[in-house]
Amino acid sequence: MIGASKIKQYSNVLEKPLSKGKQEVSLSAFAFLFSELVQYNQTQVDNIAELERRLEDAGYAVGARCLELLCHREKVYHIIVKLCVMFMPFWLSQGNRRETRLLGILSFVHSTVWKVLFGKVADSLEKGTEHEDEYMISEKELLVNRFISIPKDMGTFNCGAFVAGIVRGVLDSAGFPAVVTAHFVPMEGQQRPRTTILIKFAEEVLRREARLG
Amino acid sequence: MIVCVAVVGHQNNPLYIQSFTEADDALKLHHIVHCSLDVVDERVNNPKKSGPTLNETFLGLLYPTENYKVYGYLTNTKVKFILVTTDLDVRDVDVRNFFRRFHAAYVDAVSNPFHVPGKKITSRTFAERVSNIVKSFGLSST
User: Fold this and answer.
1) Which of A18, A182, B17, B78 is the most buried (most CB within 10 A)?
2) Would the pTM count as exceeding 0.90?
3) Is pLDDT at B40 greater than 80 in this prediction?
């Protein structure tokens, strides 16, 4: 007779096997850590620009490692591979393909990176109208800014410089050097301004993109 | 038998070179690794325009010399892994598995906040993991 297996009852909670754990960190823990990071940097610098630069450098280190990690861990199943999997299992491509096109890397940042870091895709990705080399990723409210209010005398300082640094790290390691900044964009009808990450690609990226057609 | 593994950065600067035999001249192995970088660049810049080989991470057999076979692997950040082996009948699956585990060890080593990107990898844990992976290479196939 085929019997259902009995679920093992553990008498002692210490004998239960450890679970793999959730792949998330609590928001409050991150908020505390981030506030401490900002405060620490604030004591070390004299002006706002330096503070922004430091936050960006911190984000750059995160972004570079993030790209390595994502490309190794994320399993992206392409349609071609789905068919191949049935016949040749060792052709399964584990991890993302290397992005060589501008739109490819931008949508990678906009969806995959945002999803892994913040749990959701970014609100929108737009191409700048004035310049050819500008792109904008907007978010109604950045996760890192949720518990932060900027005092009036700090002017246009935005702690989203950390996220701008992350984006710059990802783009730079993927071979698309760019200047990335974070700005507040006031929206009519809404109290809190929207945050926009402005990405300005270097000359060589545009030339390469034009060459690739 | 693997004689040498190497990690080369995106500006072709060496990040980690380790040879696993005392008999062979380490300099000769370094030279082989250096020459294989040219082959990698050539494969990357002139891709064979057939489906899955475009932007694929595993580059396959780069070139066979008189005693050695050299395999290559390219990550998304243009970091290259080079594997030099003396085995004559190496299975494709084994090499892919090797590179997968090597990539995992590399990602862990780079995630270290004290590691400066572009500098040599000095982590002892990484060296131990690599020697473990090298030891178990090819053993599972028998």
Assistant:
1) A182
2) no
3) yes
